[in-house]
Write a structure and sequence with these properties.
The protein is of the alpha+beta class and 152 residues long. Helix content is 25%, strand content 24%. It is globular and about 40 Å long.
Length: 152
């Protein structure tokens, strides 16, 4: 769990933690930062540190469905929001963590054939910072409730 420090809002601490993943290799289906992460594995790792990761291994679509059902705030661009990409809100294929109003942290550049560090290196597939509009298929932004951050 992200500890609460004086002077910084809890979501800013979560953003600092999220930035520690920059450069981690992409791995299809990856949910362990030591072995590589895919987009939903990255987001779940960040959410777990805030105590709000849904149980089990989630896809980008199931993360959207979970937080939408819980009543996450829609269209709130800013630190801690989740950006969802795909054809529609029922066909989501990618999720990223918002660092601020304009930038996201994402696990990208790979695909279903990116299974090893060598694959990731060859494809330049890794966790990286991008502008939220780096893709043209943004379909939703949801802001989960981070009420558990800093609760011990």
């Amino acid at each position: 769990m992200v500890p609460k420090k004086r002077g910084l809002p809890p979501v800013n601490l979560l953003v600092q933690y999220a930035l520690s993943f920059v450069g981690t290799p992409y791995k299809w289906g990856g949910s362990n930062s030591l072995e590589g992460l895919d987009c939903s594995g990255l987001v779940q790792s960040i959410l777990a540190s805030a105590g709000i990761d849904p149980p089990g291994d989630q896809t980008a679509q199931s993360l959207f469905d979970h937080f939408d059902k819980l009543g996450a705030t829609p269209n709130r661009h800013g630190p801690g929001s989740l950006a969802f990409y795909g054809q529609s809100v029922t066909k989501i294929t990618h999720v990223a963590f918002m660092l601020d109003t304009y930038r996201v942290l994402e696990a990208g550049g790979g695909g279903h054939l990116t299974l090893t560090f060598e694959d990731a290196a060859r494809q330049s597939a890794l966790i990286r910072i991008r502008k939220i509009n780096h893709r043209n298929d943004l379909v939703a932004v949801l802001r989960p409730s981070y009420s558990k951050i800093g609760v011990i």
